[in-house]
Structure of tRNA threonylcarbamoyladenosine biosynthesis protein TsaE:
Amino acid sequence: MILKSSQETLLDTAYKLLDYAGNQKVFLLEGPIGSGKTTLTKALCTALGYTNAQSPTFTLVHEYKTRHGHPIYHFDFYRIHALQDVIALDLEYYLFSGYYCFIEWPSNIKPIWPSCYVLINIEIKTNTSRNLTCHTIAPL
């Protein structure tokens, strides 16, 4: 699926992505610095009922709650240089919790990606618009 998005359509884009994902709860967000990974994650959290998401760049993970009180986990692995740092977080606990996980910079942890996820590649088109290419990955 390919979506075009801008600040004006961001929340609508988030709803479309959640609908596209169906029961899949792990989202891997790829894109260059400044492409809007955190901004998109904030919109996804807003669509789920949490409106105060922020970047976990220095803490690696933030936990929010949906409107129904369920956890949302937001990871930023930009500063990860060794997989041992992520393994120490017990990442599998989060990934297999059945709750939403939004992971920025997943390429830094590629050897330990889960087997099921939604991959979102963000491409900068202009200062205010992005193209999002989405793929759902599930084992056969």
